[in-house]
Amino acid sequence: MAQQQVTVTEHLLWHQIKSPAATGVFTQLLYDLILSAKLISRSVSKAGLLDVLGETGEVNVQGENVQKLDDYADKILIHRMERSGALCLMASEEHADLIRIDPSFTRGDYMLIFDPLDGSSNIDVNVNVGTIFSIHRRADHSGREASLEDILQEGYRQVGAGYFLYGPSCMMVYSTGQGVHGFTLDPSVGEFLLSHPDMQIPRQGNIYSANDGNYTLWDDKARLASDYFKSDRNRTGKPYTLRYVGSLVADFHRTLLYGGVFMYPAVRKPDGRFEGKLRLMCEASPLAFLAEQAGGRATDGQRRILELKPYSLHQRAPLFIGSANDVDDVMQFMS
Ligand code: P6P
Predict the structure, then answer these.
(1) pTM for this one?
(2) What are the percentages of helix, strand and coil residues in the chain, rounded to 5?
(3) Mutation choice for ligand 1 from 121, 247, 253, 320, CB with most ligand atoms inside 8 A
(4) CATH hierarchy code of domain 207-334
(5) Which of 131, 146, 215, 328 could form a disulfide with 164 if both were Cys (CB 3.0 to 4.6 A apart)?
């Protein structure tokens, strides 16, 4: 008998039944994210043809010719998600300010933060890119208009997080706090099928993932951590393999499956300040949620990523994420 495939729809409904608080609004929110990703995946897969064939002649939902893909992905998500009926606020890596939901749309208590197409600079060389999303639920029910103070929540308060990876296949990896689950899009039927149930990061890895080109810009502690993994002093007794795609979703997805450590330490700026590159709310925090749900760890070098209280929408943070043993070892050098 053909293996019975579990669709993401079945999986979400099954989880909704298991979650007493679930009202179906959250499930609808995820459905609309999935539809957005299918639309983005379709355009990303044709990216290279934009030059070969010129304009694909495609017209997006706003009746405009397909633009730069990250702008296109951003527009798809905003258009679809403002109509989900689940949101009171959105924030996009592409927009400096909050995206409010027009009162003409049904609104809800959820807040969505997303990076519409992370790693988009890699598209021109046909490297995997991804959409990262983080879902919070508003704590205030006074009826006042939702504002920045509602969305600037610590990562441990996320009610859902995940990413879509556009690569050889299109994958969705998500968690609502009941483990991490991966789905692969079957383009012949347009459905995400459960391919990686209950994903767990190996407790110990042997892959080191960082942009070593920044080595001279790191502080001494980050350099010591980097040297440790590339020596025979680490727990495996031999140097780790180095793998670095330069697309966060791809590097994280490999870390989730194979283990090891991904690190993007703070780098020294011309004025001498050290600053992280990755954004806390739409990159580090959702991936940290997934990492911990999969038995891994995520820190900024001092504190657990999920404990950081954001002070601004686009603040950046250093990120060390992956296998529990490997991130614990990083902390030996960083703390
Ligand atoms: P670097 C892509 O531009 C991105 O935001 C992440 O996807 C990726 O992890 C990082 O930047 C790569 O940065 O400095 O190594 O090119």
Answers:
(1) 0.93
(2) 35, 25, 40
(3) 247
(4) 3.40.190.80
(5) 131
